[in-house]
Amino acid sequence: MVTQQTGLDTNSLMNNETHKKQPQCLQGLLEPSPLMTIKVQEFHPEADVNTYPLLRLGIIIFIIFLCKNEYCNSGELRKENGELRKENGELRKENGELRKESGELRKENGELRKENEKFQMEIDQRRTQFRNGWQKASLYPDWRKEFFQAVNVILDPATAHAALVLSEGNKCVTCGEESQDLPKDPQRLNSLPCVLGHSVFTSGRWYWEVDVRDSGAWDLGICRSNVMRQGKICVKPENGFWAIRSYKDEYWVLTSPEMQLTLKEHPTRVCIFLDYEGGCISFYNMMDKSHIYTFSQGPFNVSLRPFFRLWLGYSKSLTICPVPNA
Fold this sequence. Notes:
disordered N terminus, eight-stranded mixed sheet, disulfide bond, glycoprotein, elongated, PRY, alpha+beta
C-alpha cells in the first residue's frame, strides 16, 4: 500500500515538475478547456431498445412486413411454378401426341410408297404388254401415240361448203348464218356442210385431235381424196367415208347400217388414229381415255384426207387441237 502510494506521489511530482518546466506560453494551451470537453457515453443496444418501446415496436413491425412480403412473393412464385409445371406437362403431352402422329404419318408414307412402287411396277408391266401387242389393244390412247406421228391438220378452204366459215389460220370451222357466195371449185363439197383437211395420207401412222365441246352435232373421220363432191352423198365406208357421228346426245358409227354407240362420258375432245398399212382407223374419247370405235378396213391403196361435217341448225363449231411436235 505504501509502495503504491509512494509511486503515485512520485508520478504526480514528476508530472508537476514537467508541467512546471513547460514554457508559460504553452501552459495555457495544454490546460483543458470546458468547450473542448466532450462527454462520451457508451451505447448499450439492449438498454436502448428497452428504453425506447416505440423503436422496438417499429423494428418488430418492419420484421413482420419483411416476412409477410417474403411469404407473399414465395406464394406467387409457387403459383407460377405450378402453372409452369402444368404447362410443361401439357407441352410434353402434346409433344408425345405429335410424335405419335409423326410416327403414324411415317408409317402411312411408307405404305403409300410401297403401293406407289407396286402400282408403278404394274404400269410398267402393262406398258410392256401393250408395246408387245398394241395393234390388238384398244386401251391407252396416250401410249398408242408412241407408235403414231402427230400431224398438224389444217382445213382446206377450197373444199369447204358455202354454209361453213373457217377461222383465220383454218383451224376452226363454224356454221354461218347464210351461205356464202363462193367461187365454183371442183374440190368443194356442195351437197353436205363438210370440209376436208389439207393433209393427204398415202402411208404411215398418224393421229390428230378435235375439240367438239362447242358443237351439238358433228361427223368426224377420214375419207378418200376422190369422194363425190356433188349430188346426194351418204357417209359410209362403201362411199369412201369412215366416220362416227354425234347427234342430239346420241353417238353412231356410220357403217351400213348405222350402229349406235354407248359412251360412258360425252366426249369434248376426240382423237383419231390412222394406221394406213394396217388398214385401221380408231376413235378415242380423250376425256376418259376410252375407246369409241375402230374400223378395220384392210390396206387402203388410195390417198386419204381428214373429214369434218357440221349439221345446219344444230352445230356450232369444231376446232382442231394444237398438237405438240406436229
